[in-house]
Amino acid sequence: MLNFSSVLTLLVLLFVSPNVSAIDKVFPGNAKDVDIIIKSSISDDDDTICKSLVQTQGYACEEHKVTTKDGYILSVQRIPVGRSGKTASKPPVLLQHGLLVDAAAWLLNTPDESLGFILADNGFDVWLANTRGTKYSRGHTSLSSNDSAYWEWSWDELVQYDLSALVQYVQYKTGQKLHYVGHSLGTLIALAAFSEQGKLINMFKSAALLSPIAHLNQIPSQLTKEAAQLHIAEELYSLGYRQFPPGWDVLGPILEKICNEPDTNCSELMTALTGELLKHEPQPTATKNIIHLSQMIRTGTIAMYDYGSEDENKEHYGQSDPPAYNMKNIPKELPLFLGYGGQDMLADANDVKALLNDLKDHDNGELVEVYSEEYAHADFVLGVNASQVVYDPMISFFDFHSS
């Protein structure tokens, strides 16, 4: 039987990992955006991912700060060389983590088992992203993370601002097109961006999507579905909790209520993740982000944030319904690598198959699938055999598309 604190932690880890205008392009890519990115700097702070997780393993590491167009200051780590000390001979790879974790997730296993180190040892120039609101990306040009306005965003803003800033920064620093690796929420923001076919699409060589999140209406986690159906995130937001998760004193009674719902088995969560993440405190996100994901679970749509009324949606988007992200618009010539598992309780295999159906017109050889019946959601990042099951074929895929 799981203890209550473990269930709480599993819930927040499982709950898929300025206003947006529909008129704006996802990747504006104008000179002003680039100027903001170029002004970013390298950090020398003592408390960093580089010093705590990378340099301790014998790797060179750089800490960078990237400022988004809407003022969020993102922490980015660069591993420019592998253990051999040879300068990277292959293109840059940007790694984007999922929900309620940060870039540390790519580095928690041994160097032979962690994707960040494996890519560096294989000659790639590795860049590790940290989403706004996580421990090392809590800066802003005018707001404090204690301000409620700081947390007024969903994954729409991660598409429009964070990914745009990060890709432009890496391309500017390296002068090369890049490969992309996303896990969970990191796949959703990439897919949404690709579907808009903005200017930055031409900066990608390929993308690897691990536990891809797009369609969510067949999600098998009953606990997660109950939380979405009960509008838990919306309730928290209405009570003034803009940061998720709130304190356990707030979330605990809510989760207890969900676990007491008929046919809801909280012990099912132990099969959804490997235990390693339980050693690390969940990184915060915006409650509005959780609301947005809950909307996807309830409606089965892949669309921008729904403000809940036709008038508010018209105010933000110029139409009564939120604009959709059409997965079928993803360029068929963009090389994609999809890894998914049979035990994943978030990126359900049937939902992934629906995504693959959206991509069925992809050019021959430009869409690669790796399926593991035994893999759960976090195994694609923390599985001790992921190097053989997922990373080896992914690196071969990157090598093929590196010219």
Automatic annotation (TrEMBL):
Gene Ontology BP term (one): lipid catabolic process
What are the protein's UniProt keywords? Hydrolase, Lipid degradation, Lipid metabolism, Signal
Q: Where is the Partial AB-hydrolase lipase domain?
A: 52-109
A Pfam family matched in the record:
Abhydro_lipase
Q: What is this protein called?
A: Lipase
Q: Which residues form the signal peptide?
A: 1-22
Which GO terms fall under molecular function for this chain's record?
Answer: hydrolase activity, acting on ester bonds
SUPFAM superfamilies under this entry?
A: alpha/beta-Hydrolases
Say if the entry is tagged with keyword Membrane: no
Q: Which residues form the active site?
A: S184, D344, H377
Is the keyword Hydrolase in the record? Answer: yes
Provide the family line. Answer: Belongs to the AB hydrolase superfamily. Lipase family.
